[in-house]
Fold each of these.
Amino acid sequence: MKSIQLVAHRVLEPRELPMPPDPGPGELLIRLRAVGICGSDMHWYLEGGIGASKAVYPQILGHEPAGEVAAVGAGVHNFRAGNRVALEPSITCGRCEFCRAGKHNNCVSSVFMGSPQMFGLFREYAVIPADNAVLIPDSMSFTDATIIEPVAVILHVLELAPVRLGETVAVMGAGPIGLLVASMARISGASKIFVADRVAHRLRMAESMGADVAVETPRLQQAVMDHTRGRGVDIVFDAAAKLETIHTAFAVARLSGRVVLIGIPSEPDLPLDLNIAMAKELNLQTIKRSNHNAHGAIDLLQSGRIPAGLVTHEPGLDVTPQAFETLAAYADGVGKMVIRID
C-alpha cells in the first residue's frame, strides 16, 4: 500500500508498505480516505521533534483521519464493513489512575498515532482498536470529518477554560486551531473577539470565522486597550506558542484574567517573563489534546454553526510533500490542508 513517510528533516517521500494484517480481536481495518495536516505534524517536519521528543526516521505523520471500515475483528459488534468513521488518535489503556478519573488524554501508557510510538495515517490502510473509531453521519464528507479531531481539542479547551456569555476574548494565531477557537468563542457567547496573526490572508479568514477585530500581532495590544478602555480581555487563547504571542497574551489579559496555552512551542526552552502574569494574578491553563470529545465535535459540525471555509486545499496523497511546503511557506492563501486518499 502507499504511504508518505518522513525520512529525514524536512524530507517526505512516498514509500510502499505491506498491507496490515487482518484485524485482531477488538480491532478494525480502516481504509483511510482523508487526513488533515495538523500543526504538530509541521513541528515533526520542520523541527524534527516536539519538545523533548525527537523524530525517529522513517516516521509516518497524520492523526486527523477519516475513512471506511474495511474489516472487523472478533468481538466487535458496533461496527461493520463499510461504516464511515473518524478516528481518535490516542490509544489509551483505560485502566490507569488517569483513565479511571476520566482524564484519558493523560493516560500514562498512551500511544499516539503519528508520533515515534506508532505510524500515523498518511497511508492507505491501518489497523486500530475499535474503541478509537466513531461513526460519522452519511451526510458528512470525509474532508469535514477530519475536522472532528481539532474541534474535539477545542471542546476540551473550553471544558477547562469556558468562555462565558458576554466575555471578551483574544486569540493569538489564526491558523486552523486559532480560527476554530474564534468561531467556538462566538458560539459560546463572547461579546467581542480579537484575533492576531502576522499573515494577511489568515486575518481575512479570521474575520469570516467570527473575529470582530483582526490585526497584526504587534498591533493587538493597542487594539484591545482601545476597544476595552484599557481594561483588557477576560480570556486569551494562545494558539501560536511564540515568545511574542505569549507575552502579548499576558499584556492584553485583564487583571485576574485567564490565559490558555494551546500551541506547541517551536523552541525547546521558552524564556517566559512571568512577572506581568504574576502582577495581574493571571490564571494560566495548559491543554493536552482532546479528551473523548469526538461526539460533541460531530454534533457541533453537523449543526452548521462553525462557518465554512476553514479547509482551503485538498490535494492527493502523492503530493503530500508539496502540501507540507505550502503550509511551511504560508503560501497560496492556505488555511487548513486536508490530504485526500483516493
Amino acid sequence: MAPSDVVGFDPLVIERWLPTATEVTGPFHWERLPGGHSNLTYLITDANGRELVIRRPPQGELLPKAHDMWREYRIIDGLWPTAVPVAEPIAYVDDRQLCEVHFYAMGKVEGAAMYSGAEVRDWLPQPARATAGESFIDTLAALHSIDPTDVGLEELGRHDGYVARQLKTWYGSWTASVPFAEHDDARAHDLHDLLQARLPEQGPARVVHGDFGPHNCMFSTSGTVTAVLDWEIATLGDPLADFAYSINAWIEPGDDGVYGADPPTALPGFPTRDALIARYAAATGADLSNLDYYRAFNSWKTACILHGVYARYRAGQKSSEGVDLESLFARIGVSLDAAAERAAALD
C-alpha cells in the first residue's frame, strides 16, 4: 500500500526507527491486517522478505485501560522464553516523536487461525487435526503451569477472587442491558445466585488468556500451534475458569450453535472434549472435580456477553447492518440452556 494510505502511523518515521530496533533493510512494504479488536495492525515486509507486525490502538478517544499495548507486549515478552508459543517481541515504544500513541512491534508468525469449518477444511488435512487438538490443549496446559513470578508477570492483576469479580462484572452487565435489550430471563439471575453460592476456592493464580480458543491460535498445516494471539484481556486468575472456557469453545458435532453455524472443531479428525480434558489433567495434575461449575460459569458469562452485545445493537450503539439479530438473540438462550444443564450436575 502507498505510504499515504497508512492510517495511524507515519511510515517514513517508522521506517527510520525500525532498523534501530531490529535487523531490517529498506525499502519496506506495508499491508493493513484485518481484525485485532479494532487496533491498527500492519504487516511490514523489508527488502529481504523479513516480516514484522506493528500494532497500535485505534484513533480517537479511548476508554480507560482499553487497547493497552504495554499490557499485550509485556505478556508476549514474558512468555517468549517459555513453552508457550507467542510472536517474537521486538520493541515497545511510547515516544510521541515516533507516534501519537504507544505501539509495539513483533515478529510475524506463520500459520492460520481456525474460524470456520469451511476454512479449516481447505488447509488442515484430517490426519493433522488430532495433532491440532493436542497441541491446542498442551499449549494451554503449559500456560497454566507457569508461575507468573518466574516470567515477570506477577503484577499483571490481582491474585485472588477471579471468578467472584467476573460474576459481579457480568451480572452488572446483564442487569444494565435489560432495558436496552428489552429482554430479561430469570435463569440469568438464578444462575448468578447459584454460582455465587457455590464458588470454589481458587488455587494459585496463573496467567489466564480470557479468550483461548482455536480462533486465537495460529496453527501450522501439520497441526502444531505456532503462536497464541490477542492477549488484550489476559490477566491473573483461576486457570480452571480459563480451561473451562476453552473446553466450552471446543465444539463437537451436534452441539447447539453458540459458537456459530460452522465450528471448525466439529470436523472429522479433531479430538473429543473428553480427550482434551484428560490430556489437560495429565499435563497439569489439576483437580477437575469442579469442572461442571466452571463450565456452567462460562456458559452463563457467554450469555451475559451476548446479551450486552444484543442490547447495544437494539439501542443503536452499534450498526446492525448485516447482523443476524434473531440468531444473536437465540444464542443468549442457548448459552443459558447450557449453563443450566451444567449447573444441574452440581447437585
